[in-house]
Amino acid sequence: MTTNSNVAQKAARRKLNLLELAQELDNVSKACLIMGYSRQQFYEIRRNFQTYGSEGLLDKIPGAKGPHPNRVSEEVEKAILEYSLMNPTQGCLRVAQQLNLQDVNVSSSGVRGVWSRNKLLSRHQRLMRLEDHHRETQIELTEDQVRLLEKFSPEYRERHIQADFTGHLVAMDTFLVGTLKGIGRVYLQTVIDCHSRHAWGRMYTTKVPVTAVQTLNNDVLPFFEEQGAKIETVLTDNGREYCGRPDKHPFELFLQLEDIEHRTTKVRRPQSNGYVERLHRTFLDEHFRISGRTKFYESVQEMQNDFDGYLKHYNNERPHQGRNMDGRTPYQAFVEGIKPIENEPMEMNSVA
User: Fold this and answer.
1) How many other C-beta atoms can be found within 10 angstroms of the C-beta atom of residue 307?
2) Most buried residue, 103, 104, 128, 279, by CB count within 10 Å?
3) Burial status of residue 162 (CB atoms within 10 A of its CB: 0-12, 13-18, 19 or more)
4) For the segment 286-304, what is each residue's pLDDT rounded down to a tens digit?
């Protein structure tokens, strides 16, 4: 700014010298020839000087003289920057929706404008800002946690799967969260209702059929029963924790006892459907990559406690932009999509 001001002042003094020289020589053409101006420029400079005084000699920069009239207020910009610091992987539409829930009125373009002015347009830039913030607050980060910053999940291939109501199709998959020192690998058993996107997750140190059974029996089925809903079909990949001999495999036997149909993807290698793939990416972006950079975990239970808090936010507070969601939370879509359980009068009559 100082350099631009000095240049403008030098140009103004040169114009004033032109006017003084023309008056001294009493010859406009000669003065213009000496100073390097045209006669048209001379008369324009003299007119501006006569009209506006010394300010008329300053070069005027075209464009708005102040902030754009549609620019968000300082309070809204501060709220956007604070929210983006804690949630660096969320897009501008998600940020705008979350702030609107907090009575901060802003559009997605307004959020993008704030990011643009602060050089935060890319997810990488926002994650780097989070790293700088925690470095300034003296929070130590391990090399593995820093490496997570550069690692982004590949784009998932979206595959539409028909799920007309809650419980029509529930998808499951096993996801490798990471490795804890002294404990080993940590796996996440993920379950999602494909109609409402309502999700459950339980962490284990093993990848066996019993963990899949425990997740369904302890977390998922009780929630469905509490809401008066029923699971009709479970979709998994063909991993060993889900598939085996129907008369011996624990997971297969459990689904048979609960009268739940089991479907698998028809591929030679383990592969889940698009809903689970997208859910895992969301977990990485919104929870694991952030919590892993701000906290050092020493136990699986500690990781599970923090993840349970995130799941509560994901299911009950976070608006969803998926197909047929229209900004609803997964819990809202879950409740609204419950299919009434029909009575069976024909069976009762036959018994009578």
Assistant:
1) 20
2) 279
3) exposed
4) 888 888 778 888 889 999 9
| Structure token digits, residue 350 | 């036959």
Cα–Cα distance list, 26 to 21, 50, 280 (Å): 8, 18, 82
What confidence category does residue 188 fall into, taking pLDDT thresholds of 50, 70 and 90?
very high
Are 265 and 235 within 8 A, CB to CB?
yes
Distance CA 11, CA 34 (A): 16
Report the chain's mean pLDDT, rounded to a whole number: 81
91-100 CB burial, b ≥16 within 10 A, e <16: ebbbbbbbbe
What number of other Cβ atoms are within 10 A of residue 275's Cβ? 28
Give the tokens for residue 313. 């936010």
Per-residue pLDDT at 23: 87
- What whole-number distance in Å separates Cα of residue 71 and Cα of residue 65? 13
pLDDT for position 320: 84
Query: Tokens 């494909």 map to which residue?
Result: 194
Number of H helices, E strands in the chain: 16, 5
Q: What is the pLDDT of residues 253-269, one digit of tens each?
A: 999 999 999 988 754 44
